[in-house]
C-alpha cells in the first residue's frame, strides 16, 4: 500500500518538458490527519449580498467615523454598501479601468481614468480639476496630505486645503529614471514609490516644496508591472514585479528586499503574456480560517497563492488555479475583496456582471452555479503491476442534494486522461461510507490520476492510498 500526494501533479508539454498540474478550485489545509500533514478542501463559494451597478473596479473600507463604511466603484458608479445591506449610489465615476482608493480625515479619494475625485457626505462626489494634478494614476494619504503620481513625478496636496495641489510640490525618481507605476505606505509611514524596475522609500522631512526625501540604501532594484500589481499585508507587498532585463515574477517586496514566490510553473504561465498585458493585472488579499491568500487576476487565468502553505512546504506547492465554470477555463469571476465588519465577511464584486457576493465556506457553488474542481497526482512507477484498489480518506455524509460524485481518470503518458471511473463520494447522512475504487487495470510503465468534481456538495480529500500487485 502506497500513500500518494495530491499537493502537485505531473504532466508533460509539447516542448519535451515536465510541468506541474496545479489544483483547480481546491486548496490544501495544514493539519495532521491520518499520518499526513494536511488535506484538500473545496475553495470558498460565492453567495450573493446584492447587486451593484456593473463590473467591479475597486473597493475600500473607510474607517473615518464621519463617513465610515464600505465603498466600491461598480460600473460607472460610486456605491456604498450600507450596514443594513442596502446599496446607495453616490455618483458617477466614468471609465472602465481599475481605480485607486484611499481616504483622509475629510475625503474619500478615487483615481479613475487618470482623473481625481473626492467624496464626503457633506460635499458629495466631485471631480478635482486642479491643473497641477495632470494625468494621475495612483494615490495614498499620509501626514495630512494626499500624495499621488502621474507616472513621472510624485506630488502632494496643500496641507491647508487638500483640494489644491501646488505646482512646485513635486519630485521625480532619483535612484533610476524608470516610470513610477504606483505609490504606497509602510508601517513606519514612509512613502513608497513603485517604479517599473525599482522601489524607493521616502520619509517626511518637512522640506520646502515636496515634503518627502528619499531614504538612502533602502531602495530595491525590483519594481512592479502595473499600477494595481501590488497589495499590502503586514508591511509586505505582494507584487507582480520585474527587475531590469528579467521577465515578470511574483515577489514579496519589503524594506530593502525583494523575494520571489514564483514557482517554475507560474513563471511559464506569466511568460505567455507581454508586459503590456500584465500591466492590467489586479491583486487581492484576504485572510480566512487562519490562511493568508493572495489572488492574482491575470487576463486569462486567476491564480491563488496560499502564503500560509508556502511557509511549510515552499512556493512550488502553494499555487492553485481558480475558475468559474464546469467545462472550460472561465477565469474566476470575483475580485476586489474587502472585509466588511458589518457582515463579518469578505465581499467582492464581479469581473463582468453587477453581482456582489461574499466568500462562503459553507458552499462550493458560485451564486448557485456548480463549478469544476480538479486534483492531480504525481507520476507513479507501477511497471507491470495491476491496480487493485484506490482508497481516499474523506468526510462523507454531507450531501443534501445527493450529487456528491467524483470522476477519476488515469493517464499513462502524462498527456491524455483516459476514461473516467465514477464513484459516489458519500450519500447524505451516511457518515461511515468509504471511498474505494477497485480494479483500475494493468499498468505497463507509469501512471498518474486525476480527480474531478462538479457538485453542490463540499468535498475534502485527505490520505490517498493505492494498492497494486
Structure description:
- The chain is mainly beta and 469 residues long.
- Strands 1, 4, 5, 37, 40 and 42 form a six-stranded antiparallel β-sheet that branches.
- A hairpin with a 6-residue loop joins strand 25 and strand 26.
- The protein is elongated and about 80 Å long.
- The model has no long low-confidence stretch (mean pLDDT 93).
SSE layout and pairing:
Elements: E1 2-4, E2 9-12, E3 18-21, E4 26-33, E5 36-42, E6 45-51, E7 56-62, E8 69-74, E9 77-81, E10 87-92, E11 100-103, E12 108-112, E13 115-120, E14 124-128, E15 138-142, E16 145-149, E17 154-157, E18 165-171, E19 180-185, E20 191-195, E21 199-204, E22 212-214, E23 223-224, E24 230-233, E25 236-242, E26 249-254, E27 257-260, H1 264-270, H2 275-278, E28 282-288, E29 291-297, E30 302-306, H3 307-313, E31 319-322, E32 334-340, E33 345-350, E34 355-360, E35 372-376, E36 380-381, E37 385-394, E38 405-411, E39 421-424, E40 435-443, E41 446-454, E42 460-468
Antiparallel strand pairs: 1-42, 2-3, 4-5, 5-42, 6-34, 7-8, 8-9, 9-10, 11-12, 12-13, 13-14, 15-16, 16-17, 17-18, 19-20, 20-21, 21-22, 23-25, 24-25, 25-26, 26-27, 28-29, 29-30, 30-31, 32-33, 33-34, 35-41, 36-41, 37-40, 37-42, 38-39, 38-41
Amino acid at each position: 500500500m502506497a500513500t500518494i500526494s495530491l499537493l502537485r501533479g505531473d504532466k508533460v508539454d509539447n516542448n519535451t518538458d515536465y510541468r506541474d498540474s496545479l489544483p483547480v478550485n481546491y486548496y490544501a489545509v495544514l493539519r495532521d490527519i491520518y499520518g499526513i500533514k494536511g488535506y484538500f478542501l473545496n475553495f470558498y463559494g460565492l453567495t450573493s449580498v446584492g447587486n451593484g451597478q456593473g463590473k467591479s473596479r475597486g473597493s475600500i473600507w473607510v474607517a473615518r467615523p464621519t463617513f465610515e463604511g464600505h465603498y466600491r466603484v461598480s460600473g460607472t458608479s460610486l456605491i456604498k454598501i450600507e450596514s443594513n445591506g442596502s446599496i446607495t449610489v453616490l455618483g458617477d465615476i466614468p471609465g472602465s479601468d481599475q481605480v485607486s482608493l484611499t481616504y483622509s480625515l475629510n475625503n474619500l479619494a478615487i483615481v479613475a481614468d487618470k482623473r481625481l475625485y473626492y467624496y464626503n457626505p457633506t460635499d458629495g462626489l466631485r471631480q478635482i480639476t486642479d491643473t497641477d494634478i495632470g494625468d494621475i494614476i495612483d494615490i495614498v494619504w499620509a501626514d495630512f496630505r494626499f500624495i499621488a503620481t502621474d507616472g513621472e513625478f510624485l506630488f502632494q496636496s496643500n496641507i491647508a486645503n487638500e483640494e489644491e495641489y501646488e505646482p512646485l510640490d513635486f519630485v521625480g525618481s532619483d535612484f533610476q529614471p524608470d516610470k513610477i507605476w504606483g505609490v504606497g505606505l509602510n508601517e513606519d509611514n514612509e512613502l513608497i514609490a513603485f517604479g517599473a524596475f525599482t522601489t524607493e522609500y521616502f520619509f517626511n522631512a518637512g522640506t520646502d516644496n515636496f515634503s518627502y526625501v528619499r531614504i538612502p540604501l533602502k531602495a530595491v532594484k525590483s519594481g512592479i508591472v502595473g499600477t494595481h500589481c501590488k497589495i499590502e499585508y503586514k508591511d509586505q507587498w505582494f507584487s507582480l514585479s520585474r527587475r531590469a532585463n528579467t521577465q515578470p515574477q511574483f515577489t514579496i517586496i519589503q524594506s530593502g528586499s525583494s523575494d520571489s514566490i514564483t514557482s517554475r510553473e507560474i513563471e511559464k504561465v506569466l511568460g505567455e503574456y507581454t508586459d503590456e498585458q500584465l500591466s492590467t493585472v489586479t491583486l487581492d488579499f484576504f485572510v480566512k480560517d487562519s490562511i493568508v491568500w493572495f489572488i492574482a487576476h491575470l487576463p486569462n487565468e486567476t491564480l491563488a497563492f496560499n502564503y500560509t502553505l508556502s511557509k511549510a512546504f515552499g512556493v512550488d506547492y502553494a499555487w492553485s488555479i481558480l475558475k468559474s465554470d464546469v467545462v472550460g477555463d472561465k477565469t474566476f469571476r470575483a475580485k476586489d475583496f474587502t472585509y466588511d465588519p458589518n457582515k463579518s465577511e469578505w465581499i467582492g464584486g464581479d469581473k463582468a456582471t453587477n453581482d456582489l457576493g461574499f466568500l462562503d465556506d459553507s458552499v462550493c457553488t458560485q451564486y448557485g452555479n456548480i463549478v469544476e474542481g480538479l486534483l492531480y497526482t504525481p507520476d507513479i512507477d507501477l511497471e507491470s503491476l495491476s491496480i487493485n484498489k484506490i482508497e481516499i480518506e474523506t468526510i462523507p455524509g454531507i450531501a443534501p442534494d445527493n450529487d456528491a460524485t467524483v470522476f477519476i481518470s488515469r493517464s499513462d503518458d502524462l498527456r491524455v486522461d483516459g476514461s473516467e471511473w465514477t464513484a459516489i463520494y458519500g450519500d447524505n447522512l451516511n457518515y461511515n461510507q468509504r471511498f474505494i475504487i477497485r480494479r483500475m487495470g494493468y499498468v505497463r510503465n507509469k501512471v498518474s490520476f486525476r480527480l474531478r468534481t462538479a457538485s453542490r456538495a463540499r468535498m475534502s480529500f485527505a490520505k490517498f492510498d493505492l494498492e497494486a500487485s
